[in-house]
Amino acid sequence: MNNDLDRLMARLGYRFNDIELLALALTHRSVSRHRNYERLEFLGDAQLGQIISVALFERFPDAAEGQLTRMRASLVRGQTLALVARELGLGDYLVLGGGELKSGGHRRSSILADAVEAILGAIYLDSGMDEVRGVIDRLWESRINQLDPNAHPKDSKTRLQEFLQGRKQALPTYEVLSISGKDHAQTFEVCCKVESLPDAVVASGNSRRKAEQEAARLTLEKLDDNA
User: Fold this and answer.
1) Rounded to whole angstroms, how far apart are CA atoms 154 and 144?
2) Rounded to an integer, what distance in angstroms lies between the CA atom of residue 68 and that of residue 41?
3) 172 forms bridges with which residues in the sheet?
4) How far apart are CA 91 and CA 2, in angstroms?
5) Alpha-carbon span 40 to 60, nearest angstrom
6) Which helix (H) or strand (E) element contains residue 108?
7) Residues 9-49 pLDDT 10s
8) CA 26 to chain CA mean position, Å
9) Scanning 41, 55, 154, 159, which has the fewest C-beta atoms within 10 Å of its C-beta?
């Protein structure tokens, strides 16, 4: 862990009154089951969703509910949070247990995303909603400005295909493993295989299409974690 928290606070544009809150927001469960960032993450997730919702409502006065919902999802999803974390250099400040440290946990997207939310929760406890809003406004401003409410969101299978093509890897393959239930209420279990993951990713849905989309989404998450 980098102990120079002053540098991290400068990047955040916020200085903590209680530095222990920031330290806790950087502490992973692998260090302590009882003293880690998970409760702060819960709080920060709520703050982020609310503040982003208000920001989009004000920024796009003509957008329909569905458009606002899609834009919000793109801003608060784990992939976006992990990008914010990497811009802050957050991995250098995480406190991880030995196993997570050896396995590269400081680079794992899911951990980075959780830590961003935890920091937002810590800021809320330290100074309140207005300060959290200021930090989110700064870190998300360019992303909000780039949004187009009329843009058609790409589905997970398309995004996975583009991800692999961009890295000159073979396209994914999908296989139906099982179909269960009666004709009007079937459940499809599907696996998605890509050459860069040792194991296939399995998902289920009430149609083959939905199961494949979910498998593709989970595969993207795994690939992102391994990036």
Assistant:
1) 18
2) 23
3) none
4) 9
5) 30
6) none
7) 999 999 999 999 999 999 998 998 889 999 999 999 999 99
8) 16
9) 154
pLDDT tens-digit readout, 169-202 = 999 999 999 999 887 789 999 999 999 899 999 9
Residues marked as catalytic:
45, 117
> Distances in Å between the alpha carbon of 109 and those of 22, 23, 145, 175, 211?
19, 19, 24, 27, 23
Phi-psi region of 89 (alpha: psi -120 to 50; beta: other; left: phi over 0): left
User: Could you tell me which residues are beta bridge partners of residue 188?
Assistant: 179, 205
Look at the block and give the residue holding tokens 């030995």: 98
Coil, strand or helix at 95 = strand
Sheet holding 201-205, edge to edge: 173-180, 187-193, 201-205
Tell me if 127 sits within 8 A of 120, measured CB to CB: no
DSSP-derived letter for residue 27 is: B
% of the chain beyond a pLDDT of 90: 71
